């Protein structure tokens, strides 16, 4: 009996303990929190585009694609036209240019001729008159030695002639001036091509004498005579010299070979002759630098150009360009260039702007080479072959 009671007590205790555990676990469990409400989301500020203010964009009315106007494509689309190539000019024929321009030359040159004729027409030609004649010739840049020769011959012929009519005096003066100028000198610019090479002409002279312009004008003379020309812009030290020469070439259809500014002039000259040979051109004209800072530098530079060009073929002409208005200063320049290269001909520019036409006589006597071309103005076709008879007629007047 006691054992039964004990078992009952133990069962009650066990049941009670189990019930306490269940109740304790229920007390410790918390119900899950209710689900949160949907939060309000604020959009971040939009980043501004180019030209927009840095603020949140405002709503603007929007249009549908049907409401947007499309550009009108019915008309022709405008296309920008490229600039046209420069029109090739047809230069004036070189033959007889000096004769056609004689009137212009005589207006500025006949001071010498009129002065001499006036003095020679005096009834008594004493020593004072002959001194005046000498002064007139020297003022016209004839030069000391040619002046003395001319005055001596005039004195002898006037003494023999006796009575002197205006026609006789003009004929006498014309004959003596022609003798000094040398009508028998070969004034042909040698530009004839040979079987394997074109005619090669190098143009030298001091900057400011019209050297590059003369090269361009000479190209026009040659093109007018039916020649094909290549220009070599070897004056690389003067700003825009190559542009200037190329412009002259484009006007008559001549091809221009040029190099970088301040580049080697000899390289440009070499390439110009090479290009002329490959193209089968008739003439290559080479414009050279004209700096006279030091005679040694000039000699080295021009000498190098000459040597490099002659690796292709010998030069046919070396033309010296002189400003006729510089007088005795031009003779100094001529001496310097004659020491550097073998001058074969002279080009006198600005001959219509001075009464000192005697420079023709002086420079020929100084260098022993003929004046072959003269520039009579600023026009593109004002470079003319020198004709002694036409020049003297303009000098003394009709």
Automatic annotation (TrEMBL):
Primary location recorded for the protein, binned into one broad class: membrane
Organism superkingdom: Bacteria
Catalysed reactions listed for this entry: GTP + H2O = GDP + phosphate + H(+)
InterPro entries tied to this protein: AAA+_ATPase, P-loop_NTPase, Signal_recog_particl_SRP54_hlx, SR_rcpt_FtsY, SRP/SRP_N, SRP54_GTPase_dom, SRP54_N_sf
Domain SRP54-type proteins GTP-binding: 370-383
Chain sites annotated for binding GTP: 205-212, 287-291, 349-352
Residue span of region Disordered: 24-85
UniProt xrefs under SUPFAM superfamilies: Domain of the SRP/SRP receptor G-proteins (SSF47364), P-loop containing nucleoside triphosphate hydrolases (SSF52540)
Subcellular location: Cell membrane; Cytoplasm
Basic and acidic residues: compositionally biased ranges: 49-66
UniProt keyword list: Cell membrane, Cytoplasm, GTP-binding, Hydrolase, Membrane, Nucleotide-binding, Receptor
Protein function: Involved in targeting and insertion of nascent membrane proteins into the cytoplasmic membrane. Acts as a receptor for the complex formed by the signal recognition particle (SRP) and the ribosome-nascent chain (RNC).
Protein name (database record): Signal recognition particle receptor FtsY
């Amino acid at each position: 009996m006691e054992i039964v009671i004990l078992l009952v007590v133990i069962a009650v205790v066990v049941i009670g303990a189990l019930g306490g555990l269940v109740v304790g676990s229920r007390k410790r469990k918390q119900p899950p929190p209710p689900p949160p409400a949907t939060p309000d989301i604020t959009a971040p500020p939009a980043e501004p585009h180019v030209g927009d203010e840095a603020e949140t964009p405002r709503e603007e009315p929007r249009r549908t694609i049907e409401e947007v106007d499309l550009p009108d494509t019915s008309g022709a689309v405008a296309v920008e036209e490229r600039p046209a190539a420069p029109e090739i000019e047809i230069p004036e024929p070189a033959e007889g240019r000096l004769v056609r321009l004689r009137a212009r030359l005589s207006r500025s040159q006949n001071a010498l001729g009129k002065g001499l004729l006036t003095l020679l027409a005096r009834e008594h030609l004493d020593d004072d008159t002959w001194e005046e004649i000498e002064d007139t010739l020297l003022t016209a840049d004839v030069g000391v030695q040619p002046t003395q020769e001319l005055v001596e011959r005039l004195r002898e012929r006037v003494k023999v002639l006796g009575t002197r009519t205006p026609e006789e005096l003009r004929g006498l003066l014309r004959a003596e001036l022609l003798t000094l100028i040398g009508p028998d000198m070969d004034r042909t610019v040698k530009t004839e091509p040979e079987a394997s090479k074109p005619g090669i002409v190098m143009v030298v002279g001091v900057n400011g004498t019209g050297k590059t312009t003369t090269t361009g004008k000479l190209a026009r003379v040659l093109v007018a005579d039916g020649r094909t020309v290549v220009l070599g812009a070897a004056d690389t030290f003067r700003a825009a010299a190559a542009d200037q020469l190329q412009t002259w070439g484009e006007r008559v259809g001549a091809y221009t070979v040029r190099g970088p500014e301040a580049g080697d002039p000899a390289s440009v000259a070499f390439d110009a002759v090479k290009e002329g040979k490959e193209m089968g051109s008739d003439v290559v004209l080479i414009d050279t630098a004209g700096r006279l800072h030091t005679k040694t530098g000039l000699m080295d530079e021009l000498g190098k150009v000459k040597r490099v060009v002659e690796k292709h073929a010998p030069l046919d002409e070396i033309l010296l360009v002189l400003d006729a208005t510089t007088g005795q200063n031009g003779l100094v320049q001529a001496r310097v260039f004659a020491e550097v290269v073998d001058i074969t001909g002279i080009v006198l520019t600005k001959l219509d702007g001075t009464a000192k036409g005697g420079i023709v006589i002086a420079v020929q006597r100084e260098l022993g080479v003929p004046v072959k071309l003269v520039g009579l103005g600023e026009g593109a076709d004002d470079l003319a072959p020198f004709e002694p008879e036409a020049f003297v007629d303009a000098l003394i007047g009709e």
